[in-house]
């Protein structure tokens, strides 16, 4: 039990850091400091943390357009992430990608992706490369409920089973495909049934329960690391914000939102930890530290230099100067 | 006992040259591998023939018919430290993977702020091929690709260039699109012995001349050379430049030739409207102010019946007529 408490505290620390990162991103957007579109993952922290807590640095993650949480959970440095959102040259992508393309290759985070389902093949390809190079790395692909209606979902899952690749597919179902309720655009019995039909080892869990996500991912990743092929984790959660930071989500009722707020994965975990004897002061300290980290990230992002016009011509390609 | 001297060249088809190039690069670098449909069977043009036996199923990967996944798996595998050769069968099928090529592969290095290169070769045989395969198996879409920042675009027309450029492409850290000349795969040429590469971005003078600069590439080269020969008999000396690389393209060589001949003609198999010929024409006009003409296909899909296909096709007669018109 002591191990579970310790694990829970470490989960809470990362979940709160993600929550604080997102809240500060919203502040930066509202203040006009973040120029581009931002998709927040508030309410979905348990999926990112429960899965990534099972990964080593050399494992790969491919993410979605809502990728900040996956990036933090995989170990990216939040100062460089925030600088990227600000479009600064000290950002993870030197200000060239922004929120939707945030990536940190030094921790195996192969990028958020502006295209729904865009990360699926990347994760499969990274797994195929790892096998060819004799590396132990596995790949994890996060994608949303919208991606299961795109061709790459079928193609990628099929491919991974055909070649028995070390990939964990994680369907993070936040209930909405952009501005539309996912259930109204998905036929049949949904993502898991499709994965099972293709022959993947599949689990469904409450995506707001970080321990449930962690335990299921743990089991599936053990299966993958034993060389028994790919696996699929279906984790329904809930997007507490709109699709983008400026979407007020008028397509859902305030009653629904209130009900879902009561199932907030962060406060749920805090309640559980208190039941297990963790002091409120320790919980409070986690919040204070995360807030301080993100304030530092905001300050350094604010002070960092912007890219120059000359930077627009760098990293386009090696052969043939851009004109 | 006599000592045999090493032959300087070998005669082989373009398909054989392509296969040799890949085999040599796979022997040289264990991180090079290939993925695509029917590779175990040698590929539809025989460009992978026998490679499965030598390199095994981990490096000659016969995939499902899943174009977007072929492209994206190659992309992901490049991000994770390998050098994939992505086989798309023919250019037309790559349109099922256009998002992966244009939105992901071409932009990744820039978008990720230089954290990674994308060392992939995407093989897209293009053009009319052996004929009568209608509108979805015959397109030439190089203009779309050259239009996309991040891609290197190659279009060889001879066995020597096929081998040397494919080897250079595999060694490049940029994503390279290899537009193989489908209709010329079975034609033979002299290929230098041993390890060699062709510099990317360097055009080749396929025929020297002094009256008109004729710029072309890929499968149209034989028709262009035939037309130039006929023009020579009619007293018009045509310099033929085989561009070989479309991005980057050899502005220096083209402009030097056009400055000398004072007239230029661009011939390509693709539709003339919005084609890459327009870019070259505009450059010559902007830099030199010499008159430039273009010949390309009409803006129609390629039809199946011989008369329909031939209406689309740019052939030696049409090119000869364009030469005569350009000289007026």
* Greatest interface (CB-CB under 8 A), with counts per chain: A-B, 53 and 49 residues
Distance between the termini of chain A: 62 Å
Helix content of chain A: 40-55%
Strand order of the largest sheet of chain A: 1-2-3-7-6
Largest sheet of chain A: 5 strands, parallel
Sum up the overall morphology of chain A in one term.
Answer: globular
Number of strands of chain B: 14
Largest sheet of chain B: 7 strands, mixed
> SS-based structural class of chain B?
alpha/beta
Let me know the number of strands of chain A: 7
Low-confidence stretches of chain A: none
Approximately how much beta-strand content do the residues of chain A carry? 5-15%
Give me the oligomer status: heterodimer
Please give the radius of gyration of chain B in angstroms.
Answer: 20 Å
Helix-and-strand structural type of chain A: alpha/beta
The value of Rg of chain A in angstroms is 19 Å
Q: What is the ordering of alpha helices and beta strands of chain A? A: HHEHHHEHEEEHEHEHHH
Low-confidence stretches of chain B: none
Specify the number of helices of chain A. Answer: 11
Largest sheet: spatial strand order of chain B? 3-2-4-5-7-6-12
General description of the model:
The complex is a heterodimer of chains A (323) and B (328). Chain A is of the alpha/beta class. Chain A contains eleven helices and seven strands. Chain A has helices at 2-30, 45-52, 68-73, 78-85, 118-133, 151-162, 191-198, 210-225, 254-261, 265-275, 280-303, and strands spanning 60-62, 139-144, 167-173, 176-177, 180-181, 201-204, 231-236. Chain B has 328 residues and is of the alpha/beta class. A seven-stranded mixed beta sheet of chain B has the order 3-2-4-5-7-6-12, with helices on both faces. A five-stranded mixed beta sheet of chain B has the order 9-11-10-13-14, with helices on both faces. The mean pLDDT of chain B is 96. Classes of the chains: A alpha/beta (323), B alpha/beta (328). At the A-B interface, helix 5 and helix 6 of A face helix 3, helix 4 and helix 5 of B.
């Amino acid at each position: 039990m002591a191990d579970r408490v310790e694990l829970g505290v470490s989960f809470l620390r990362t979940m709160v850091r993600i929550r604080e990162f997102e809240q500060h991103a919203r502040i930066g957007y509202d203040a006009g400091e973040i120029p581009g579109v931002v998709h927040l993952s508030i309410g979905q922290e348990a999926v990112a943390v429960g899965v990534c807590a099972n990964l080593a640095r050399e494992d790969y993650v491919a993410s979605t357009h809502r990728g900040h949480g996956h990036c933090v959970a995989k170990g990216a440095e939040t100062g460089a992430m925030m600088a990227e959102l600000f479009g600064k040259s000290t950002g993870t992508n030197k200000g060239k990608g922004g929120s939707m393309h945030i990536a940190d290759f030094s921790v195996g985070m192969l990028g958020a992706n502006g295209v729904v389902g865009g990360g699926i093949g990347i994760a499969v390809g990274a797994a195929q490369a790892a096998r060819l190079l004799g590396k132990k790395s596995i790949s994890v692909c996060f994608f949303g409920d919208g991606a299961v209606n795109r061709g790459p979902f079928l193609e990628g899952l099929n491919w991974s089973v055909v070649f028995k690749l070390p990939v964990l597919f994680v369907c993070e179902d936040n209930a909405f495909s952009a501005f539309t309720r996912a259930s109204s655009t998905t036929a049949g019995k949904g993502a898991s049934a499709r994965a099972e039909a293709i022959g993947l080892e599949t689990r469904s869990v409450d995506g707001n329960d970080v321990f449930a996500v962690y335990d299921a991912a743990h089991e599936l990743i053990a299966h993958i690391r034993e060389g028994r092929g790919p696996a699929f984790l279906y984790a329904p959660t809930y997007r507490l914000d709109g699709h983008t930071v400026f979407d007020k989500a008028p397509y859902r009722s305030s009653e629904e939102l209130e009900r879902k707020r009561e199932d907030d994965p962060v406060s749920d975990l805090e309640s559980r930890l208190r039941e297990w004897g963790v002091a409120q002061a320790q919980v409070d300290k986690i919040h204070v530290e995360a807030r301080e980290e993100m304030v530092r990230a905001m300050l350094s992002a604010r002070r960092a230099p912007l890219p120059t016009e000359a930077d627009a011509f760098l990293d386009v390609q090696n052969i043939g100067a851009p004109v | 006992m006599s000592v045999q001297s090493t032959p300087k060249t070998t005669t082989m088809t373009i398909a054989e040259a392509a296969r040799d190039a890949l085999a040599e690069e796979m022997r040289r670098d264990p991180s090079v591998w290939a993925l695509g449909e029917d590779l175990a069977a040698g590929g539809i043009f025989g460009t992978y023939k026998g490679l499965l036996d030598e390199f095994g199923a981990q490096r000659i990967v016969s995939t499902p018919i899943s174009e977007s996944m072929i492209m994206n798996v190659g992309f992901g595998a490049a991000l994770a430290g390998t050098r994939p050769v992505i086989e798309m069968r023919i250019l037309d099928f790559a349109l099922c993977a256009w998002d992966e090529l244009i939105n992901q592969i071409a932009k990744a290095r820039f978008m990720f702020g230089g954290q990674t290169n994308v060392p992939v070769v995407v093989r897209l045989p293009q053009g009319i091929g052996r004929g009568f395969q209608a509108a979805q198996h015959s397109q030439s879409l190089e203009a779309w690709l050259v239009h996309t920042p991040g891609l290197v675009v190659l279009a060889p027309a001879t066995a020597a260039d096929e081998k040397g450029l494919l080897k250079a492409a595999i060694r490049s850290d940029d994503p390279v699109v290899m537009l193989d000349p489908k209709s010329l795969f079975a034609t033979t040429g002299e290929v230098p012995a041993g390890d060699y590469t062709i510099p990317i971005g360097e055009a080749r003078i396929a025929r020297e001349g002094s009256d008109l600069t004729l710029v072309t590439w890929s499968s149209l080269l034989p028709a262009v050379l035939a037309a130039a020969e006929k023009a020579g008999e009619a007293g018009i000396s045509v310099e033929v430049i085989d561009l070989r690389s479309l991005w980057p393209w050899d502005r220096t060589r083209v402009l030097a030739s056009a400055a000398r001949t004072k007239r230029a003609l661009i011939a390509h198999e693709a539709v003339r409207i919005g084609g890459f010929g327009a870019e070259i024409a505009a450059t010559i006009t902007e830099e030199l102010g010499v008159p430039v003409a273009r010949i390309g296909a009409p803006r129609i899909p390629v039809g199946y019946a011989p008369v329909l296909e031939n209406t689309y096709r740019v052939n030696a007669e049409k090119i000869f007529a364009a030469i005569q018109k350009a000289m007026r």
